[in-house]
Amino acid sequence: MAANVSSTACLLENNADTVEYLKLGHGRGVDPDPNFPFQIKVLSSSSPDLKTTTDPAPPIQVVFAPTDFPLKSTVDELSKLFQKYKFPSAYRLERVQSVTYAFGARETDCWLHFLCKHIQMRRSREAGGFVPINDVAEDHSWNAAGYFLSWSHVVDLEENGGGIQEKREGKRISNVTLICSGAPVGLENRLKEFLAVSSNVDVIMQDPYALWIPVLMESWILMDDTVWYLQELFGKLENQTIKYTQNMSNENWNTKFEVDFQRLHNLAKHIIHLKEGSDAILYSLEALQKGHKDMHMGEGMVRNATKKSFDYTANLFWSTNVRLSALEKKVDNIINLAFHLVGQQDTRQAKIDSKIFLKDSANMRVIAVVTMLFLPGTAIATLFGSNFFSMSSSGKFVQSGDFWIFWVVALPVSIITFLWWIIALRKKEDVEENRDARDSEEQAF
Questions:
Q1: pTM for the whole structure
Q2: Are 32 and 23 in contact (CB under 8 A)?
Q3: Which residues pair with 178 in a beta bridge?
Q4: What angle do CA 64, 303, 209 make, to 5 degrees?
Q5: pLDDT, position 393
Q6: What are phi and psi of 369, to 5 degrees?
Q7: Closest-CA residue to 50 (of 77, 70, 72)
Q8: Which of 129, 215, 229, 443 could serve as 121's disulfide partner, Cβ 3.0–4.6 Å?
Q9: Cα-to-chain-centroid distance, residue 94
Q10: pLDDT at 22
């Protein structure tokens, strides 16, 4: 069977806008082979019916469906899908509860849910790398995929001594179906490439768990790419912070260090979500490997090959998990460093402000001393320059008989001003005490 596979759309029941059936043939530029052992179906969210064809189902089917979270636009289709393929109730409950770690298995089926934070990125020539499509703080996209793998057993019989009994080989696998709900965009091509290899098809027909391999690989690529995107975003902030740290030793370096702590916090939050998803998929993969071991499907060499593929995929997820752990620690380190830099910057600014304050205080001290020197003379000159005193023709000072009015007005005004100042000062102190008491009660609560 050729590795290069051509695909054409075969529209059934004149339902071109709702259900698309892709039958893959041998080689490039040839007609589809109806006997090809697998079929990929793409279902849109508007599909009114899950009836496919009256022909016998191919040995291997892959169904792409919308997200299995019950939305108003897809709940009817999902109900038909769940009934047709006999989904367990636990599968639906897991998605409703948005679990991050879930793998279940029965005798002839198993399922896996994958929930992981996803950052939508695009390549930017201006930025010289990847940049988020949306603001990182506002990116609420998640990769919430669900997979349900089922198969059936066929018992071959033979005549023996006039009777019919089961062949020595026992049961064999038939009609393997993988249903992908909300799967990544690249999974379809990966499955096509995987199923285009005849040896992979032979392995699946002996060990259906082998069909998990391309699913896990695509999930790992999606997670690993997201980690690298975050690594690139963090690298820019890290270089900026380290560059400022190196220049702080220069006393003439007056550039203000500015950091968006909210963006940095959101970056750390996304990393925590990714770490949760990474840990969860590792636990799920461990449960999947245990389920594969307990099923005892396929010959020794086939099961061993599938086991090795699972081990390799687990190593890839562990590699991403280790990188995530390192990235998480580096982000924590930069956050601490940024706080220290802001603190040092504030301390340096406080020293500059204190020097300015001391200089202003010295200037004010000089002004106060000069004022104190001239104030008595100014007061005396003002008093004697008023109309209460005058110079007689003989050259003597004459005091007015109405001089008492000055004291009647000046003394009460001075007393009232002083009392108003005392009352305002005490009122301000009471307001501050009440505010401090209220803040203390809120902190205690």
A1: 0.65
A2: yes
A3: 62, 149
A4: 15
A5: 73
A6: -65, -45
A7: 77
A8: 229
A9: 21
A10: 38
